[in-house]
From TrEMBL:
One Pfam family per UniProt: HRDC
SMART domains linked: HRDC
SUPFAM superfamilies (alphabetical): HRDC-like (SSF47819)
Catalytic activity: Couples ATP hydrolysis with the unwinding of duplex DNA by translocating in the 3'-5' direction
Enzyme class: isomerase
Keywords per UniProt: ATP-binding, DNA damage, DNA repair, DNA-binding, Helicase, Hydrolase, Isomerase, Nucleotide-binding
Coiled coil start-end: none
UniProt-recorded name of the protein: DNA 3'-5' helicase
Cofactor(s) for this UniProt protein: Mg(2+)
Gene, per the UniProt record: recQ_1
Species annotation: Leclercia adecarboxylata
Domain HRDC stretches: 29-109
Molecular function GO terms recorded: 3'-5' DNA helicase activity; ATP binding; DNA binding; hydrolase activity
């Protein structure tokens, strides 16, 4: 048995309040907002057809970069962040066709 006095120390967990994350929906930069809306519409149609979430096709940041750069060739499309060879092969033609149509003014809505 214990004789005498023993000092006991317990660790008290610190509670740290985290700041809530606020998702930014406004993107800066000079991108074609009309083209961005068309790209989102195409992404949604592809996602619905393939039964996958839209962000699996391309995320918003990638679509914004497409609306800024307006890539019309495979090499230009590959320079867009979020576009790799697989996504280029899978979705590139449709997105480049839409961008080409938009830049030619053929697709008026």
């Amino acid at each position: 048995m214990l004789r005498g006095v023993v000092e006991l120390q317990l660790a008290v967990p610190r509670v740290v309040a985290l700041k809530p994350r606020v998702m930014q929906k406004s993107y800066g930069g000079n991108y074609d907002r009309k083209l961005f809306a068309k790209l989102r519409k195409l992404r949604k149609a592809i996602a619905d057809e393939e039964n996958i979430p839209p962000y699996v096709v391309f995320n918003d940041a990638t679509l914004i970069e497409m609306a800024e750069q307006m890539p019309l060739s495979a090499s230009e499309m590959l320079s867009v962040n979020g576009v790799g060879t697989r996504k280029l092969e899978r979705f590139g033609k449709e997105f480049m066709a839409l961008i080409r149509s938009h830049t030619d003014g053929d697709d008026e809505e």
